[in-house]
Structure formats: structure tokens, C-alpha cells
Amino acid sequence: QVQLVESGGGLVQPGGSLRLSCAASGITFSIYVMNWYRQAPGNQRELVAQITSGGRTSYADSVKGRFTISRDNAKNTVYLQMNSLKPEDTAVYYCNAAARPIDYWGQGTQVTVSS
Fold it and tell me: Mean of the pLDDT values across residues 20-45?
């Protein structure tokens, strides 16, 4: 059974930081491209950050320079370090594991940036 379980969300003030984790099981984690998506109310789900099996990273323009994606293959876990958070970062953040012909999704973790 494949499971992706996110954790680390919560309420933070503007300018603060959070670290999200996604623990995977039931897949050969090291060969998957891992992604973080987010979705705010009324908005489409957007790709925030991506890390390949080889460790190459990419980011949405809106978070570049503030967010860092990383992975620990020994722990089957991908992380998203979020710094300098803004109210517009408020969303449910989803972990995604991608390898054709199928993708897997976590249930999401809420991030709220508010004073």
C-alpha cells in the first residue's frame, strides 16, 4: 500500500518559517521525482517545488529564493523548508510522487500565514 504522509503545517506570522515533511512508504522512493504542490481556496493547484531522483531542484517563481526542497532517501522523506513566509503562501500543501504511468498524493497539510 502506497502512502504519502505530510506533516509540519501550522500557523505562522509573516516573515516566519516552517518546515514541511512528507514520509513515503510502499514505493521505491529513490527513483521518484518528488513534488510539493499547494492549493488556496478558489485557486488551482500549483506546483511549488520539485526534486528529481538525482537531486536537481526547481521552484515556482513566486517562492524561488525563499523555499528549499530536499530529500533524504535513507528516510524515504522529502522536505520543504519555507522561509520569509507571506500571507499569499497560505494554502494546503500536498506532497506528490511522480513516476509514469502513475502519480501518488498525500492528504495535505494546512499552512496559514497571518498576523
Answer: 96
